[in-house]
Amino acid sequence: MTNPTADSPPTAHQATHERTFHGDTVTDEYAWLIDKENPQTVAYLEAENAFTERATAHLGGLRETIFNEIKGRTQETDLSVPARKGGYWYYTRTEEGKQYGIQCRVPVQPGETDPPSATGEVPGEQVLLDGNALAEGSDFFALGTFDVSVDGNLLAYSTDFSGDERFTLRVKDLRTGEVLADEVPGTHYGSAWSADAGTLFYTTVDEAWRPHRVWRHTIGRPATDDVIVFEEPDERFWVGVGLTRSEKFLVIEASSKITSEVRVLPADAPESEPLVIAPREHGVEYSIEHHGHRFLVLHNKNAEDFALSYTSADAPGDWVDMIPHEPGTRLESVDAFARHIVISQRRDGLTGLRVMGDGSTDFYDMEFPEPIYNVGLTGNPEYDTTSVRISYASMITPDSVYDVDLVTRSMVLRKRRPVLGGYEPADYEQFREWATAPDGTRVPISIVARKDAPRDGSAPALLYGYGSYEASIDPYFSIARLSLLDRGVVYAIAHIRGGGEMGRRWYEEGKLLAKRNTFTDFVACAQALVREGWTSPERLVARGGSAGGLLMGAIANLAPEAFAGIVAEVPFVDPLNTILDPSLPLTVTEWEEWGNPIESADVYAYMKSYSPYENVAKLAYPKILAMSSLNDTRVLYHEPAKWIARLRAVAPDGNYLLKTEMGAGHAGPSGRYDAWKEEAFVLAWTLEVLGLA
């Protein structure tokens, strides 16, 4: 590594590493950066950070301004709408000046049906867990599970202080406030209690960071006595554990990208043998929810966009249809309550909720007023209820919480996220545009802008995309985004293939040997914004993270002239080298998403044709900002580090910046103020590229 001057970036030395697959050689000059323990690696990353800081020092004032805008629009001391569970109302609150949420509860008062006020102090509050106290002295803090026992007496929680998503599980007695001697290191997300709170189930990961074991822990016993309840040997599958809303069954789910298998055991018999609902069948995905005498089964067997069936809870067997498959209506999840069933679904690129009565013959779809929105269930722990809580937002309507009476269909607004500083939704407009992909497919775009934004191509714009894993980037509200909109920036989301916005086929047409559709869809969306007068290429920035960072790297090679700048956050820009190495975290489980280039020459050639790192060329690239985290276990830090190094070597005339969080994971900084500062950094860079700094 050369020592950079004030005006020049560091230069990574080359140490060529070669591997041969299918008669072709993969050359990786910067493979040495994968060694996290190598002092040269750390020194290089720190030199890159120092260069980025120098290169953006002139934006310090703008960063501070944007940070203060985000902070000033946020009600810092606030609390969520309390949700009832048993004899308590549970909620999270935040305090001004503190980074993390505080988990609390208060007893339900006799005859009380409505939640306590979600705006002020709540009398009789019991603090269950204070993230600020737990995080004291640590630069990073995250919870992996927060799980109150059925009787309300014990709390299972797990903590991570580095960002590597390895959690230490502990148990707190909520009657005394004492943290018990029970302590289990190296656990994964999630947990589940037995009915009597004497047993706790949790998961652990293998060396490839794949959750593969479900364990049973007896409260009061050392972790060394814990018993493996289920172990998944197939490296394509990962496992999870949970408790049904009815609290009658523990559920163990094993899933790959395209296949699933569910086991259950009675919550009041935690030492019993798990019962398989239906043996795994390649390509068949299903999930279950307990509902009285039956298990509801949401599945895609002969149903591309999924169907809803049921089977006996006493002796699971054949599936009986409830909602048949309807092409174009993607059933995403099912939630069971004592007398109702609520199905979360998606149609024409919009989310929706369908309500079924206990008889399963009558149903209705909830209706919402805006043309673009995002709706879903949230915080519904109670099984025996006729009311559900939903979240609702659009690109101009802040996050809102409603309670819906499932019988009368009436909706009560419990809270709308405060936006301080005089925010007026009427000052903004949201739109749905459509782009046409090279193969003729129409791709939806969600757009928000101030009403006075010009439509003559002169407005600056930011286009966001993801497009993998059937994940949908639905229209959402963002306080931070206002710092762009109020400076005249048009904000757009490209709902490209590989995501799930338009149903299962939308996902299938953007994965494996159809992955290029994701990239060409995004470019088509950028071109549509220009064609419809929203912006111009020299005033357009693209942004994406993780698998969306792969998208950013791919479009940089595919259409560099279409963008003025690209923000790639924790970007998966070296997919070929990663997927060719089964020893790396999550590689084997990813083969059903991207293909297996080790076994298939066609997959190998296809991945090599679009891999951003492999296809860096002497092009006139737009300005690029790559963001990474040293402790990321999902997209390893060395991918963006190698990508930036190769860009500098092959196309040295470009403007490339790399910023690595040296003490965080995949999601970046954990505290809210730190996260706001990180967002202000990105937005200030974006505004400079757009000519608005």
From TrEMBL:
<feature type="domain" description="Peptidase S9A N-terminal">
    <location>
        <begin position="9"/>
        <end position="415"/>
    </location>
</feature>
<protein>
    <submittedName>
        <fullName>S9 family peptidase</fullName>
    </submittedName>
</protein>
<dbReference type="InterPro" id="IPR001375">
    <property type="entry name" value="Peptidase_S9_cat"/>
</dbReference>
<feature type="domain" description="Peptidase S9 prolyl oligopeptidase catalytic">
    <location>
        <begin position="476"/>
        <end position="691"/>
    </location>
</feature>
<keyword id="KW-0645">Protease</keyword>
<dbReference type="InterPro" id="IPR023302">
    <property type="entry name" value="Pept_S9A_N"/>
</dbReference>
<keyword id="KW-0720">Serine protease</keyword>
<comment type="similarity">
    <text>Belongs to the peptidase S9A family.</text>
</comment>
<dbReference type="InterPro" id="IPR029058">
    <property type="entry name" value="AB_hydrolase_fold"/>
</dbReference>
<dbReference type="InterPro" id="IPR051543">
    <property type="entry name" value="Serine_Peptidase_S9A"/>
</dbReference>
<dbReference type="Pfam" id="PF02897">
    <property type="entry name" value="Peptidase_S9_N"/>
</dbReference>
<dbReference type="InterPro" id="IPR002470">
    <property type="entry name" value="Peptidase_S9A"/>
</dbReference>
<keyword id="KW-0378">Hydrolase</keyword>
<dbReference type="Pfam" id="PF00326">
    <property type="entry name" value="Peptidase_S9"/>
</dbReference>
